[in-house]
Amino acid sequence: MKMFKDAIVLFLITVVAACALGAVYEITKGPIEESKVKAKTDAYEKVFGDIPNLKEVGEDRVEVSANMIAHYERLDGSKINEMSDVVDSDGSYLGTIMSITNSNGYGGDITIAMGVGADGTLKGIEFLEIKETAGLGMKAKEEDFLSQFRNIKTESFSLLKAKIEGETEMDAVSSATITSKAVNRAVNAGLLAAEVQRALLGVAD
Fold first, then answer.
1. Which residues form the domain of 194?
2. DSSP alpha helices (H): ranges in the chain?
3. Do the domain assignments include residue 116?
4. Terminal Cα distance for the chain, rounded
5. What is the largest CA-CA distance in the chain?
6. Which of 40, 127, 157, 203 suits 146 as a labelling partner, its CA being 20 to 30 A distant?
7. Residue 182, Cα to own-chain centre: how many angstroms?
8. Is residue 122 situated within a structural domain?
9. pLDDT tens-digit readout, 156-197
């Protein structure tokens, strides 16, 4: 009988705990989502500057860029999460803002926001998600690393000493080669995606 009573008590405790967790989730879900949206909005402003209007790119156009990214092994693990055209009040194209994830970080997914102007200039990148090792890979969030991706016009970046023609060599995070490689792939995937979008829109660099 005692064992039966203990089982009932344990069951009731489990039910109460589950209900409590569910209630906490519902209460915090809204603020968490709002926080994520604000973080993304802030990141977009940092990587592009003044944004008059954003126009979400259609799935058909995104798919063209995604197929191009998948074609290159050196961009392995990179995926477009979302992409928007930046347009002025007259609807003129000013550039592209996007969220790109590379799954090959040391701590898993690394997601960046990046902005590319209508002339192909990389305006900047910011991290939306990064879970690398403290003191090593997380140094990627520091200004010394981020600044090399700001206001530079290049076809792609390279971590290699023997660069491919048209590439710009980037400084890797010290003792964090895996992190640096994942960021390199994400940025290069974004540059390729933006180039494809300009071509689809008939915009010359």
1. 53-201
2. 2-48, 59-71, 143-146, 177-201
3. yes
4. 81
5. 82
6. 203
7. 11
8. yes
9. 998 865 556 667 888 888 888 999 999 999 999 999 999 999
